[in-house]
Write a structure and sequence with these properties.
Structural class: alpha/beta
Radius of gyration: 24 Å
Number of strands: 17
Number of helices: 21
Helix content: 25-40%
Largest sheet: 6 strands, mixed
CATH class of the largest domain: Alpha Beta
Amino acid sequence: MKNIISELSHWELLEIEKPARYLGGEANQTKIKDNPKLNVCLIFPDLYELGMSNQAIKIFYELLNNRPDIMAERCFAPWPDFGNLLKQRGLPLYSLETGTPLSEFDALFITLPYEMTFTNVLYILDLGRVPLLWKDRTEGPLVIAGGPSAANPMPVSKFFDGIFIGDGEESILEICETLIDLKKSKTTFQEKRKALGNISGMYVPEFPAKLVKRRVFKNFANSAPPLHPVIPNVQATHNRAAIEIFRGCIRGCRFCNAGFYYRPKRERPVENIVKYSCEMLKNTGEETLGLLSLSTSDYSNFENLVKGLQESKLYPEQTISIPSLRMNDNTIKLLDETPQIRKGGLTFAPEAGTQRLRDVINKNITEDDIINVMKTTGDSEYRTVKLYFMMGLPFETDEDIEGLIGLVKRLEEIGRSTKPKKQISISLSGFIPKPFTPFQWAGQNSLDELKRKRVMVCKGLEGSSTKISWREEYLCLLEAVLARGDECICDLILAAYNNGCKLDSWFEHFHKEGWEKAFEQTGIKAEDYTRSHELSEVLPWDFIDFQTPRAFFEKEYRLAAQIAGEDLK
């Protein structure tokens, strides 16, 4: 089939927003290989700008294309204007490197970074002319998922031939080698799926195993990051050269799925990070280096790392970007001693407004820590301080909401006395119980209760200069259903897509009525998935060995209840 990109005229492309999203040809794009043994497409189910910032896509793109016998290409979810253009022209969605229709690849690897991309998966498969359900596929590409939101594979299990759990660096090569061997013998689709089930960490819905063990990339510390990332045609969401300095977390916040998904903590050595950072900056021309992790200031040798990066600077104006900081003494020291860090606003996540509730959720910061950070950074050039809070946390009371209001007022008062003055902004979101956390059994507040608490915060801060934003409560409910769902949720997602739902994380495209209709059509009740569970109940994801024992999660949940002065059933 012809290169689909060549089928589109300049006049057609000028009618859509940001046509460069769909043209490929970027700097550092892989060279086209002649007759590779395997052709795969890496898919990020959201816009180009977001996908080009995704670390998993960068890692797998370079890892696979370093193999001479594998050609890995990319595809992202199109904005509706381009999706409609493809439909009007009768053209399929294609890869950026060669314009190949998705249906002509050997495999599609789709990363699932957050639950609100689930309908985008169907949107991409539909545009790519790939059957949406695995049971309807007898030819064409195998469709394989991975990523944090695939940790509980059941809500998307009808759409994928295989769903991988855990770190993918080693397994993606194992999958490709398996598929290369299978191509030689011209096996059936069913035989291909069965073979996938022999790969550790892989869940195959057609041949469900009794136990699937999460994979851990133990050699992370000694591995090289992607050193030649593709440079986007349009500005990416995170416009910088990025290196993952460590993977995992030791904090153990009881609400955080990522903290358990990426365990154990594994750090790259300082000398390797400095060396790789210099190579990456040379290969991209970027002037800002992003240090990535779940909490960058938790790197054990951070002072020497920053010193090493400073001593090896390639450009006088080179800066460091640190997206995740904790409100503690290490952060204060870091901000004071590292003037080369890119300046912007300070962003922190206290999560709860009272010490009691922070202890319940195991957020290891005190109110004194929060106040101290605010006072100590008062004379710095940072002008904005953004704080993230959750509402509806387990064992929360109205006193905790009042505590949130009081804490914000206190911080605002400190901000008014500094030079320059600090603008406080807060972001509110409803708590979402996630699988593989100590709070996986906890219930979610009803929509009315979440709205009541949000209004309580807004009224409590009336007349203040604090800027308040919040996540719409229905999105919080929907994310909980998609995260904690069983196989029935596949029918809900399919019905929602057929009702026009896609790009659900973009407020201008979120179609609430389409989701409400899908609940009615399927007879699924959201409260069945947002309710609290007894500790004795079997959960849909219990067949996954997350390498953190269920008994540990239960112990932590009981400890949270004990701190709150409550008993669990």
